[in-house]
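Researcher: Here's the sequence for the chain we discussed earlier.
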Amino acid sequence: MKICTKCGVNKSLDEYFNQAKGADGKGSECKNCHTERTKVWRKNNKTKELEKQKEYRLLNKEKKKEYDGNRKEERRAYSLKYFRKNRELCNARSRGYKGKNREKIKEYGKQYYHENKGYFSMYSRLKDARKRIATPLNGDIKVIAKIYDKSRELTKKYGIPFHVDHIVPLKGKTVCGFHSEHNLRVIPAKENLRKYNKLITGEA
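Model: Thanks. This is the structure I predict for it:
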């Protein structure tokens, strides 16, 4: 047993972090007090803490890479669980960040595109091929072209991007639709990106 120098409570040694310099191999503060003090320090010293973390990552690149690789699935599961539990908070943070960093995000997108042109070229060809395969023989190509023209017109008219959406996705998880005039509609890009390749009940 040992008395915490912070809260003054007598606790078992399991309630203390290991510390080589300690007389008993343990720290002077209990885990709860130490954690709380660390939180307060980090909150009051954000810049210093970020610099400290950045320096550590630069000095321990291989160690950090190995550590992150070993915990990849664990971190992904935790992130997904956190997002589902705090969906509104995460979305609000994302919107706030995007609103404050539009130019930064735009520049990053350009840089990423230039560094991965091969991937985007391959993906574009794959989409074109998928559309050709999914276009029925009785599909009206001229009507389809007019739908895409309407998308460009609305984008120019309202100043926000519009997309041509496949109501029943070409590559859905449970069902695949056709690239035909009956399965196309023009909607705001934001709505289309949110939908992705899901089939929204009641739209088919």
